[in-house]
Structure formats: C-alpha cells, structure tokens
C-alpha cells in the first residue's frame, strides 16, 4: 500500500513537467517558419546596405525564413533625441513580435540592439555583422562577423602605382565608424614614410578645393564621408563630385564607392558579406538552437576590384594591378566580343579541313556513297509517285480532289507568308493527306448512302493509317506529310479526330489542308450527296470560323472568296501530283 502511494505521489510530481515539455515541443513544431529581424545602421538607399540586403536575400532564397528589415539611418541622425524616438517607434512596431534571431549590420545597430536587447527584442539571440572591430566583451548568444579589411593592401597598391607620393590624403568623417577606422589607420601610418593627411571636415565646396589642390604624385584614399563636421551630407554625391575633379585616382576600401567614381582597390564587398551571413544563418539552424553557440567569425569578404574606365582615365593599365583583380566595366576586346562567332568559325574551319582530308583519302568510297544515295532518292521518288498513282486509280474523283486542294492550299500558304520550304512540304502533304484510305475498303469509300456507326469508325481510322505509312521516312517532307495526314481532320475547337487536338496544337499545314479539303468536298458532288452552292459553302466557312477552321485561315479565305473559287474551278490551278512529288528533289 505504501509503495502504491509512493508511485502515485511521484506521478503527480512528474506529470506537470512532462505536460509542459510536450507543450513546449508542440509549440516549436507548430511554428511554421523562422522570424528574423535585419536591423541596419544606415538607410535603405545607402549602397552598402543595399548590397548586404541583396546578398542576404539571394543567399536565403530557398530557406524558410521570414525576413523583417528595419533601417536606423544613423549616418544622418544619431542624436540621443533621435535614438529615443527610434526606440519608441520600434516599441510600437515590435509589439507582440517574437523574433527567433536579430541580425545587426554595422556598429550603430549592434550598440542599439545591445542597449535595448531586453526591452525591445525579448533577449533574442543575434548575429552581428560588419563590425569594425571586435567588441571588448562578447555578449551571450551573439555571434559576430568582424570586418577584416586589410587597409595596408589598399595603401600598398596605391603607392605601387604612385611611388613618388609624399602624402596620403584620407577622406574620412567623424562618425563612430569613421573614428574607429581612423584609429586603425593611424596605427598603420608609422609603417610609411609618406605623411597621412586627414580630410575629415568641410562641406562639398571646401572638399572640392582640397582635392583639386592635391599634388599629381600624391595618393587619395576614400574611407567614408557622411558628416561634414556640422551636419549629415550625401555621401554618394560628394564622392562623385570629388572623383570628377581629382588629379589622381581615388582609392577606396569599399565596393559601394566604385560606382560613385572611386577607382577601387582592395575593397570590402557588402554583397559577399550578405551572402556569407546567409550561410552562417543556415549553419545556426542546422547545428543547434541559437543558445548553444557563441563566438567570432573571421572571414575575408574583400578582394581587388577596379573600375576599368577610371584606371584608363589616369593612365593605369591592367598590369599595374594584381593578377587576381576584378576589372569592372571593362569593354570587351575583339576576341571576347566575337568569341562565339570565332569559336563557331574555328570549329567550322576545322571540320572543313577534316572533311577535305577525308574526301581525299576516301574519294572512291565517297563516289560509291553518292551513287548509293542517288539510287535511294530515285527509288524514294518512284515509290511516292506510285503511291500517288494508287490514290488516283482508286477513284478518278479522288485524283481531281487532290489536284484542287493542292492548288488551294498553295494559294493560302503563299498569301499567309509561309516559306518556300513549307510550301514544298505542303505540296506533298496535300496530295498525300488521304493516303490512309488505301487501307479502307471500297465498300465504305464508295457507299452511296449514310455510313453506319461501325463504318464511320472505320473511315475515321484513315488519318492514323496514313501517318503510320509515312512517319518513318528519313525525308523531312514525307515526315511533314505524315503529320498532315494525321491532323487534317482535327478541329480548331478540339472536336475533331483522331486525337482531339485544338488551336495551334494542330500543325499550320494541316489546318490549311483542312480548310481546302472541306471546301472542295462541299463544292463537289459525291456518291452520298449533291454539290453545295458557293453561297452555302461560304456561309458554312463563316459559321465554322473558330470552330472547325483556324480563324486566320477562315478570314483570309472569306476575304478572297472569288479568287479562291476561281482556283478551285480551274482544278487547283493545274497543280498535279507530279508537281507535288517534285518537292522531294
């Protein structure tokens, strides 16, 4: 009894914990996707921010992430009053939001996140990217991607191109980022004999005067310039203006500065940072919950990039830069521009040379092959001609019918702008469209009255039989004739046979033959019906426009009805089966 009570008490203690754990598991499983906030230090229009976003989005395109983007615009506004208002706005926007992870880009966003991590972001784990330096104290559940831009490489590159330089002019503002980078550059300055001249204040006109006054042997390095010492300024506009008046190329540490007029150099690329960050995000969610990781990621996201037109403007050639330099806006050379044509031409020339050699070596075999091919073509023509004669001899009415629809089909094809090759295919296909009727008994073909359902089913097999007769030929015209034979009873609206094709699924030549075949059949007397009047046939074509007939073909025939009738009355403009067989030549 005591033992039973012991287990009961134990069960009562464990049950709530088990239920809570299960509820926790169900909550996690019910969560559809990962909510990630991207908090940028700068504005959305800033090129650096845009390239990071593009890398993040493209790198995460196949992931089940929901990305939220927010922009502090702290290059222009970073007063305590502004940051307080920003906090109030985010408090309102993030009310009720639960982010699985916060990604901060650059120092200002990271500091804002850390200041308000508990109150605004519910102590979410974070990935902090683009920091200019390693934080003194690493925060718990935060992974860092530190900018590892080798400033020395860019300065060395500039001095290689300008070995007589006495001064290195550095354009840099007094923002937080600018101050951090300036400290790093000051640490490097002792390694160089050149004087470091800091251009760190002044409006656009003042900066322009300073840059114009730079000696043509000196070096200019652009870092960033968002603040002129008194107010925020347009970084892109300033760089573009300075580049237009500078007597020397302006080197840069960032890829976003190149489109605005900088030469480039060894640059840090925001797009690469965004792509790499997306891989880190994937690694986080594959390797465990965010609270299980912490640390630094030291990954170079830089390389040599140079604007080719700017380099040429200052007399610099490709050999003045490292071999692995990526040249932007480089015009295609002759071989690059015509690489495809030259490649194809080279292949053609090589093939021709090989053919000439083979012809010389195998001349006798080639002659024998020509004789064999000539015999095959002659045999093929004879077979097709004899097949046409078989169709003619089954019914004199059928032979005249073939002549007429061949002529009418040619008339339509010529006026619809079909190529001569298509018209040649049409000549043969129109004359052989009913070749499948060789497999239908004369009893059915010449029956005077209506056909019974079984007889109608049998007559409807002739398109397929015609196709089977012609389909395996190596001759392109005969293969096209096989398609015409198969599809000439299909209807534009899909109500035809044998396959119920509709619209442009039906071959254009088959649609033309359908029109001419039906019109000729209606205008002609048959064993099972009298001939229709031309007015009645014209009304029928109008009625079946878009149903039985292709609208474009029907409208052409109606618009040229008298000329169409004159060709029919002339027996198809005297186009004979022999003319059709000539298409094989």
Helix content: 40-55%
Relative strand content: 5-15%
Discrete helix count: 25
* Structure summary, number of beta strands: 13
Mean model confidence by pLDDT = 82
Cα separation of the termini: 107 Å
Low-confidence stretches: 6-31, 290-298, 573-584
Structural class estimated from helices and strands: alpha/beta
**Rg over alpha carbons:** 41 Å
Strand order, biggest sheet? 2-1-3-4-5-11
Account of the 3D structure:
This protein is an alpha/beta fold and 585 residues long. It has helices at 2-30, 47-59, 80-93, 106-115, 117-121, 151-161, 176-189, 204-212, 235-245, 270-287, 308-313, 334-337, 339-361, 363-394, 396-415, 420-431, 442-445, 453-459, 462-470, 476-487, 508-523, 534-543, 551-559, 561-569, 577-581, and strands spanning 34-40, 65-71, 101-105, 126-131, 142-146, 167-172, 195-199, 219-224, 250-252, 264-268, 295-297, 302-307, 326-328. The strands form 3 sheets. The protein has a 6-stranded parallel sheet. A 4-stranded parallel sheet has the order 7-6-8-9, with helices on both faces.
Please write out the topology.
Layout: H1 2-30, E1 34-40, H2 47-59, E2 65-71, H3 80-93, E3 101-105, H4 106-115, H5 117-121, E4 126-131, E5 142-146, H6 151-161, E6 167-172, H7 176-189, E7 195-199, H8 204-212, E8 219-224, H9 235-245, E9 250-252, E10 264-268, H10 270-287, E11 295-297, E12 302-307, H11 308-313, E13 326-328, H12 334-337, H13 339-361, H14 363-394, H15 396-415, H16 420-431, H17 442-445, H18 453-459, H19 462-470, H20 476-487, H21 508-523, H22 534-543, H23 551-559, H24 561-569, H25 577-581
Parallel strand pairs: 1-2, 1-3, 3-4, 4-5, 5-11, 6-7, 6-8, 8-9, 12-13
Antiparallel strand pairs: 10-12
Helix pairs in contact: 2-10, 8-9, 14-15, 15-16, 15-21, 15-24, 16-20, 19-20, 20-21
